[in-house]
C-alpha cells in the first residue's frame, strides 16, 4: 500500500499560495501580485481554457514576452491538463506557423506587440481555433483595441467554478513542448515531463542558491527551455518574479536598483549587455548570475566578478530542460591566480544534484545509422581527447513530439546526444570544445572554435568574438575571427593575432580577423556561426563532423 | 521513449565522490575520510555483504552509535540491494531480539560497546546468521579483542571486485526499515522507499539551508528515522559529517569549536543539553539547529536565538521519514515582539517543499473500524478546533513491514494518521496540541498537555517540564506537572501554578507540581509520559482518546 504522489511543478504553486498568500510573487512595472493572486489567476486561466474547449492533452501556445501571463501559463496550462508550447518571440510568421501547426495547438495567446508574426498566417493555421490577444499595460500597444478575445476575456471565462487540483495522474505526462531553434532543418518539439520539470526545479534552487528571499529578474526568455524551469523553481521557493519585456541594459539596471535583485539568468551575451550598459556599477552585494547558452570566457567571468556578481556557470540544451551540468565550485580554487581560476570556472562542469552523470564518448559501431547497436565508449579523462557530450535520465526530454526517427537518432545507445564536442578533464569536469558542426578541421587537426574565441577575448580591446572555419587551399580550413571592439578601444587585426599566438598553439590562431559592428545572433543571444560561415564559403561545400 | 532514472539516495554519493573526491566527507575523532574514501568504503561494505551471502531484499541490521560505519551502512547496505535496519542503541536485549527476528535480518553489525544488548540473545536469534563486531578506535572498547568477525573483516571481504552500480531498478523498493519506539505495544517496522528518501533529502537541504560548506554535527541518532535522511542529504550537498558517539554537552561544544559546525539536528531535550552545558557561549555565527521530536517551547526558541542559533522547527514521525512540516519563517514576524514571534515559531507549520499538504481532520464514519469507508473532514482553520494531523504522499512510509492490519489502520481514508492532535491556524499553520493518548479530558474539556507545558516552561526557574493527566474525583482528570528546576534556581509549586494561571485558562493549570531531578526519556530524548502516568494511575483504567 504505497500512497505516492505524482511529481509535478503544479504542487509548488499550491504550496507557496498556501504558505505565502500575501507575499509578492510577481512584479511587473508598478503592478504587484501576491502568491494568492498568482494561484487564483492560474486557476482562472485553467478554467478559462477548459471553458474555451481545451481538453486534457491539448496543446496551448503562448507567444509572449516575460510578462505575468507567461508565468500564469506555466501553471494554468498544465492545471487544465494541457501542454504548454511557449513560442520564441523573435521568429518569423512562417516559423510561428510551422510550430503552431506541428504542435497542433488549439489556442494561441499572443502579445499585441507580437501580432505582426501572427496576422499574415492567421487564416492558414491548421489547428488553432482561437487567438487570444494579450494587451499589456506595460507594453507598447497598451491603448490598442483588438477584435480578438483578450487575455482578460480568457481569464474572465474562468472566473467561476471549482478550483482544479494541483496534481497530475502521471508524472511522466508531458507538461510542455519547446521547439529547438532549428538552425539545421525544421524546429523539433522537445517534450518535457512533469517529473523532469519538478526535479530540475529543485536542482535550480540548490545550484543557483535560491531561498525565500530571492528576487529574480526575468532576463532569460521563458520561451527558452521554459526559462530553465525557473517559473517553477522560483515559485517553489516562494521568491519574487520581476518581469521584463525587453533585455535592455538601462531597464535591467533600473530594476536591479529598484528591487535589489538577487538572481538573474542569461546567456553570456545578455551578461555582456548588462556589464557594458552605461549604468553598470559595482554592486554592494553578491547578485547571482546563472549563465549558460554559450561558454563564458574566463575574461567575462573575471569582469562579472569585478562588478560583484557571483557567477554560476551551467550548461545544457533545450533537450535537457536547460541546465544539466554545473561548474561546481571547489574551495581550493580560491587560492589560485584569478585567470587560472576563471579558466577552471569557464568549464561546463559536472552533472547537477538531480541529474545522472555527464559523459564524453566516442560513438562506436560498424553502422552508426543502426542506433540500437551503437556502443558509447568514454574518452580518457585527459582534458584533450574530444568526444560527444551525452546525457541521460530525469533531466532529459522524453523525446521529440511526433518525430520518432529524430528521437531514436538522438538517443543512440540509450543516451541523449548533445551534438556538442568536449573533453573530460582529469578532475571529472567536462569542457565544451565545440558544436560538432562548428569544429574546424585544419590540416587534419581539430581546432575548437571556443578555444580560439577565448584567446581572442583575452585581448583587452575585444568585446565579443566569433570564430568559424573558412576555406584554405593548403590546410582545408583555417580559423577566422569576427570581432566587436569595446567602445573607444582600437586594435589592428595583426595585433590581435599576435596576442592569440602567445596563448594557444600557432596553428590554432586565426588567419584573418575582421572587425565588425555586430554579430548575427539567435533570439536567445547565441551567435549564429552558420551565417558567418555561409558568407565565407559561398557555394563551396564544407564537410561536417559528427 | 522515456529514459527516466529511478530516484535513489545512492546517486548522491556517486555524485559527491565524483565532484569532491578529495573533500573531507567524514570526521571522527582525529580521523578524516574524503568523499572518494567514503564511496570506496560503501562499495567495500556492499561487496562484503554480498560475499557474506546477503542477497537483494535481505535485511541488514546495524546497532551502532553515530560512527562512520553507520554512514557507510546508509549507502553500502542498499548498494548491496539489501534493506537497512538501524536499531535503537538504548534498547534492551529482548527488544533488540524482537526487532532482529521480526525484520528477519540475516547480518547484524554491532558496536563492541553495545554487545551487552546482544550477548544474552545471540543463541536465540531466528534469522541472524552472522554477527559482525564494530571496534571503534574512538569507543570505550578500542583495545578489546573479539571472537566474532569485525567490521574491518567485513570490509576486507569486499576489498576486491567490480564497483556495484549506484542505482536501483525500482524507486519504490524499500531502502530501510525503522522500528517505532513501541510505547503502546510491539515496535512496528516502518518501511522507507528510495523515492521518499531521495525527495526528503532534497527537502532537508532546502529547509535546513545546507550548501557544500555545511559542517554537520551528528547529535541526532542515525537510528532515529535514518537521522531524518541526513546521511543522504548532507552527502548529496557534499558537506562534512562530524561523527559523535554520545550526546554530551562538553563533547558537542568542543566539536563546534574545533570544526566550526554550521548545522545540527535534535530534539529540544538535546538542544537543552547543549544550551545548559557549562561550555555554552554566544556564537559569532548563525549555527542552524533543526529541531523536532517534541514541540520546542517559545522559551527554548528565544534562549537558542540568544546564543546565536538559527532555529528551524520541523515536525514529523518515524512514519514520515522524520520531518514532514516546517515552521516556515515569514518576513513580517521579524517586527513582532519576541515572545509573540517565538510563539508563532513554536508551531509545527506547513508541509515542506517536497511533501503534500498537511491536514487536521476529524475522522468520520459510522464504523471507524471499517477503514476504507472512513471520511476525513478538515477542521475549521480557527486555531482552536482540535483534530488529528494526517499526512500523505512521497514523504510517508510505504507501510509497516509484515503488518498489513496496522498499515491499513494507519492509512484510514488514504491518509497517514499521526495519532497527534492539533489545530489549524487561520494562516494555514498546524500546531500540535497533544498526542491523542496524552490529551487530558477534564470535566469534558480537552486540555493540551503541550499548552500547559509551555506555560510552565515560561517560568524563569523551570528547565524542563512534563504534564500528564492524573485521576481527579470531581473532574475525571486534572493536569499534573513534573518539573526540573534550573541549576541554582528555586521555585515553590504554588508559585509555578500561579504563574501558569496568568498565561492560560485556570482550569488548564496543573493541580499539582512535583519538582523532580530527572524525567523518564526515550533514547531519542522524548519524555515518556506513560511512565509518569502509570505511577499516578496505579491500577486504575484511563480512557484514551482517538
Shape of chain A: globular
**Sequence stretches where pLDDT stays below 50 over 5 or more residues of chain A:** none
The chain pair forming the largest interface, with residue counts per chain, is: A-B, 52 and 52 residues
Named at the architecture level, the CATH assignment of the largest domain in chain A is 3-Layer(aba) Sandwich
CATH homology superfamily of the largest domain in chain A: ANL, N-terminal domain
Number of individual domains of chain A: 3
Give the total of beta strands of chain A.
26
Spatial strand order of the main sheet of chain A: 2-1-10-9-11-12-13-14-15
CATH topology assignment of the largest domain in chain A: Rossmann fold
CATH class of the largest domain in chain A: Alpha Beta
**Straight-line N-to-C gap of chain A:** 49 Å
Number of helices of chain A: 16
Domain AMP-binding enzyme C-terminal (chains A, B): 451-526
GO molecular function (chains A, B): ligase activity
Organism (chains A, B): Actinomycetospora endophytica
Keywords (chains A, B): Fatty acid metabolism, Ligase, Lipid metabolism
Describe the protein's architecture and organization.
2 copies of one chain form a homodimer. Chain A has 16 helices and 26 strands. Chain A is of the alpha/beta class and 546 residues long. Chain A folds into 3 domains: 10-246, Rossmann fold (3-Layer(aba) Sandwich), CATH 3.40.50; 264-435, ANL, N-terminal domain (Rossmann fold), CATH 3.40.50.12780; 440-537, GMP Synthetase, Chain A, domain 3. A 9-stranded mixed β-sheet of chain A has the order 2-1-10-9-11-12-13-14-15, with helices on both faces. A 7-stranded mixed β-sheet of chain A has the order 6-5-3-4-7-8-19, sandwiched between helices. In chain A, a hairpin with a 2-residue loop joins strand 1 (24-28) and strand 2 (31-34). Chains A and B meet through helix 1, helix 6, strand 15 and helix 13 of A and helix 1, helix 6, strand 15 and helix 13 of B.
Amino acid at each position: 500500500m504505497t500512497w505516492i504522489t505524482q511529481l509535478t511543478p503544479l504542487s509548488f504553486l499550491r504550496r507557496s499560495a498556501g504558505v505565502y498568500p500575501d507575499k509578492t510573487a510577481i512584479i511587473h512595472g508598478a503592478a504587484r501580485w501576491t502568491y494568492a493572486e498568482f494561484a487564483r489567476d492560474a486557476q482562472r486561466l485553467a478554467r478559462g481554457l477548459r471553458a474555451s474547449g481545451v481538453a486534457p492533452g491539448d496543446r496551448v501556445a503562448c507567444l509572449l514576452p516575460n510578462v505575468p501571463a507567461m508565468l500564469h501559463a506555466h501553471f494554468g496550462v498544465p492545471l487544465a491538463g494541457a501542454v504548454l508550447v511557449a513560442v520564441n518571440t523573435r521568429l518569423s510568421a512562417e516559423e510561428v506557423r510551422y510550430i503552431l501547426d506541428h504542435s497542433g495547438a488549439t489556442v494561441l495567446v499572443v502579445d499585441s506587440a507580437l501580432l505582426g508574426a501572427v496576422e499574415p498566417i492567421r487564416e492558414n493555421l491548421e489547428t488553432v481555433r482561437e487567438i487570444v490577444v494579450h494587451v499589456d499595460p506595460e507594453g507598447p500597444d497598451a491603448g490598442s483595441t483588438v477584435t480578438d478575445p483578450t487575455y482578460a476575456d480568457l481569464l474572465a471565462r474562468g472566473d467561476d467554478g471549482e478550483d482544479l487540483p494541483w496534481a497530475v495522474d502521471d508524472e511522466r505526462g508531458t507538461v510542455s513542448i519547446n521547439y529547438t531553434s532549428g538552425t539545421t532543418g525544421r524546429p523539433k518539439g522537445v517534450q518535457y515531463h512533469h517529473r523532469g520539470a519538478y526535479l530540475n526545479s529543485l536542482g535550480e534552487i540548490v545550484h543557483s542558491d535560491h531561498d525565500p528571499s530571492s528576487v529574480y529578474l526575468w532576463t532569460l526568455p521563458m520561451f527558452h527551455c521554459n526559462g530553465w524551469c525557473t517559473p517553477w523553481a522560483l515559485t517553489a521557493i516562494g521568491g519574487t518574479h520581476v518581469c521584463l519585456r525587453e533585455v535592455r541594459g538601462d531597464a535591467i539596471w533600473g530594476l536591479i536598483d529598484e528591487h535589489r535583485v538577487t538572481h538573474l539568468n542569461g546567456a553570456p551575451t545578455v551578461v555582456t549587455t548588462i556589464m557594458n550598459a552605461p549604468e553598470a556599477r559595482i554592486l554592494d552585494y553578491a547578485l547571482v548570475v546563472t549563465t549558460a547558452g554559450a561558454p563564458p570566457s574566463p575574461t567575462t567571468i573575471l569582469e562579472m566578478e569585478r562588478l560583484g556578481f557571483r557567477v554560476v556557470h551551467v550548461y545544457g540544451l533545450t533537450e535537457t530542460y536547460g541546465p544539466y551540468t554545473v561548474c561546481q565550485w571547489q574551495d581550493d580554487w580560491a587560492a589560485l591566480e584569478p585567470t587560472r581560476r576563471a579558466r577552471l570556472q569557464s568549464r561546463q562542469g559536472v552533472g547537477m544534484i538531480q541529474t545522472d552523470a555527464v559523459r564524453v564518448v566516442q560513438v562506436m559501431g560498424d553502422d552508426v545509422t543502426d542506433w540500437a547497436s551503437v556502443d558509447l565508449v568514454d574518452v580518457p579523462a585527459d582534458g584533450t581527447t574530444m568526444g560527444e557530450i551525452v546525457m541521460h535520465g530525469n533531466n532529459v526530454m522524453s523525446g521529440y513530439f511526433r518525430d520518432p526517427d529524430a528521437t531514436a537518432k538522438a538517443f543512440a545507445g540509450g543516451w541523449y546526444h548533445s551534438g556538442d564536442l568536449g573533453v573530460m578533464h582529469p578532475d571529472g569536469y567536462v569542457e565544451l570544445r565545440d558544436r560538432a558542426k562548428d569544429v574546424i578541421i585544419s590540416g587534419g587537426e581539430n581546432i575548437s572554435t571556443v578555444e580560439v574565441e577565448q584567446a581572442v577575448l583575452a585581448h583587452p580591446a575585444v568585446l565579443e568574438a566569433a570564430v568559424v572555419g573558412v576555406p584554405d587551399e593548403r590546410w582545408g580550413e583555417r580559423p577566422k575571427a569576427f570581432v566587436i571592439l569595446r567602445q573607444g578601444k582600437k586594435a589592428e587585426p595583426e595585433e590581435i593575432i599576435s596576442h592569440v599566438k602567445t596563448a594557444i598553439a600557432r596553428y590554432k590562431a586565426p588567419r584573418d580577423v575582421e572587425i565588425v559592428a555586430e554579430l548575427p545572433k539567435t533570439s536567445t543571444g547565441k551567435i549564429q556561426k552558420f551565417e558567418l560561415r555561409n558568407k565565407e564559403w559561398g557555394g563551396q561545400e564544407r564537410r561536417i563532423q559528427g
